[in-house]
Amino acid sequence: MSDSPLSLSSSSPPSNSRSPVPPTFSTRIFSDVAGDIIVVVDGESFLLHKFPLVARSGKMRKMVRDLKDSSSMIELRDFPGGPPSFELAMKFCYGINFEITASNVVALRCAAGYLEMTEDYKEMNLIFRAENYLDQIVFRSFHESVLVLCSCQTQEIAETYEIPDRCMEAITMNACRNQLVSCLSEELKGRDCLELWTEELSALGIDYYAQVVSEMARLGVRSESIVASLVHYAKTSLKGIINPNCQEQRKIIETMVTLLPNNEKGSYSLSTIPLSFLFGMLKVGTIIDIEISCRLELERRIGHQLEIVSLDDLLIPSVQNEDSMYDVDTVHRILTCFLERIEEEDEECGYESDSTGQHSSLLKVGRIMDAYLAEIAPDPYLSLLKFTAIIETLPEHSRIIDDGIYRAIDMYLKAHPLLTEEECKKLCKFIDCKKLSQEASNHVAQNDRLPVHMVVRVLYTEQLRLKKALSGDSEEGSWVLSSGVQSRAVSPRDTYASLRRENRELKLEISRMRMRVSELEKQHNLMKHEMMEKSGSNSGTFLTSLSKGIGRIAIFGGENREKVNRKSRSVSERKTNKSCVAGGIMGREECEVGPLKNKEGLVFSL
Q: Which residue windows does the record flag with biased composition (Low complexity) (predicted)?
């Protein structure tokens, strides 16, 4: 717009001479008629004419009518949009063309309402033009609706004309339309439309944004789209330094938590909410001290996905408590939420249902918690009560092997050398010697930080293993171990739950026994090989010579004995016949001695 500004200096008195007063659009249109009224808008003066104003504005008509004869000044206070909006409204009264856009339509609509520029005074007045632009242009476009809603944030009077509500309704309807188009189109697949409107909503204030997202959820917009919008909005609005005393940041986090979507059954949409987003809001919320209900909600949602978290996510710095480096209490509450989820799933499942998924999740969490305990154990300010609280919360059947928990306890004992003997015993009772590997057992036997009774228990357990391995009787030990774990896992509250836990423990015991059998087989083969090598080194020469002699005897005795005997019997029969005729004693001797020799003269027997 190339028109000169309408405003005059408040100190400049009205004058009919053209030299001191700069030309305005009124003086250009009515060059032969000087201004006859001064309108002061928020301290800025406008030299105008009464006729164009009273022709379209009901408020100006009333104020001009109430003017005293000696006065020619009207003051408008708290004008919507200030002097710029009043200037656009006056241009409309004087018939000067200008463009209505999404950035000025709210100010024009509010200014027209303030000046009462209705159809009662003139057809197609400013209110009609502004409303027509909103209906035909703004509310049909997602982008234009967002821009208009952003401009409503600076115009409180816009609520009077229901512009924000209509904008939010238009935004929601356009989002649903885009979702429908993306579902029907194979080329879009929801990605382009999704990224477009999620980024545009980040320009809104938290109040309007919360209303828009709530309306979207009510009308059935996908949870994935809402979560993507929440993540982008949080990154945009919380970018920069986190101020613990900033009420705006605290309000944003608390509102984000209330906007997180749920599925139809009321449980959490685990697959749609990134864990990094939940942990980020929890860490920021801890710093700025959000409400307890919001923190518990975030912890509950994280706990329902605890099996897929990483160790770095759990290392939440401690801000308010000075007794430890990490916020162990928060992690303990998250673990409790996970166990509650497992218990609820067990109760909902039928008797014949497979609980392999729950077992797998429990074992994963057991490994994660063992790694977490090993990470926080070197903290010299970590109390024994908090350390043992996490160990006690996890059930014993969440670990197949106790090497991880032994490592964490050993690191804690190393970082806290001033623990009493009773405290050390209290820690070591969480270690099941039967569930330690061979390497861990060897380490325990040489660990000076452990109590003596712990070392004795491990040595006794290893002795029993060796004895059973040598005797081949492993069935009894398996039943003893199995029954022990079962007795600890049985819940006294519910018989059905006890049966399910017993079945679960039996499966875990089978897995442990398979691993133990494989280890025993390796040890047995190794001992057998060492015994063979040791015995072979002492009597190798004697056994070699003895085997050769036995071999020669076997060769002669086996192959030629029958032939030699047959020849000897034939010779003895002939000689016996001759000697019998002579009847001498020498004949009998030759008969006896003859079979003892063959042709070569070798002796076979005595």
A: 1-19
Q: How far apart are CA 606 and CA 601, in angstroms?
A: 14
Angle between helices 585-593 and 561-582 (to 10 degrees): 180
**Which letter does DSSP use for residue 212 in this model?**
H
Q: Which residue has the tokens 């009321």?
A: 266
Which structure tokens are listed for 262?
A: 């749920």
CA distance linking residue 555 with residue 148, whole number of Å: 113
DSSP state of 3: P
Beta bridge partners of 132: none
Query: How many angstroms separate the CA atoms of 143 and 117, rounded?
Result: 28
Instruction: Give the Cα separation of 361 and 303 in Å (integer).
Output: 12
pLDDT digits (tens, 9 = 90+) for 28-61: 445 556 778 899 998 899 989 888 999 999 999 9
The CA distance from 596 to 603, in Å, is 6
Task: Kindly report the average pLDDT of the chain as a whole number.
Answer: 77
For residue 125, pLDDT beyond 60: yes
Alpha carbon distances (Å) from 431 to 275, 428, 456, 557, 586: 32, 6, 13, 67, 92
pLDDT band at 352 (very low <50, low <70, confident <90, very high): very low
How does DSSP classify residue 100?
-
Helices (H) and strands (E) in the chain, counts: 27, 4
Q: How crowded is residue 58: how many other Cβ atoms within 10 Å of its Cβ?
A: 15
Both tokens of 533, joined, read 């090598």
> How far, in Å, CA of 44 to CA of 538, rounded?
117
Amino acid symbol at 426: K
More confidently predicted of 323 and 316: 316
For 435, the 3-state DSSP assignment is helix
Q: Three-class SS of residue 76?
A: strand
Separation of alpha carbons 500 and 502, rounded Å: 5
Over residues 520-534, the mean pLDDT reads 85
Residue 242 backbone dihedrals phi, psi, to 5 degrees: -85, 120
> How far, in Å, CA of 472 to CA of 144, rounded?
81
- Give all domains of the chain, ordered by start, each with its CATH number: 27-140 (3.30.710.10), 162-263+271-287 (no CATH), 342-468 (no CATH)
Q: Which residue shows structure tokens 């875990």?
A: 508
Residues 6 or more apart from 587 whose CB is under 8 A from it?
575, 576, 578, 579, 580
Specify the DSSP element, H or E, that contains 52: helix 50-56
Q: Which residue has the tokens 């209303």?
A: 211
Q: Per residue in 203-236, pLDDT tens?
A: 999 999 999 999 999 988 888 889 999 999 999 9
Here the tokens at position 353 are: 């249902």
- DSSP code for 135: I
**Cα–Cα distance, 367 to 271 (Å, whole number):** 22
- Cβ neighbour number for residue 349 with a 10 Å cutoff: 14
Helix (H) or strand (E) holding 45: strand 44-48
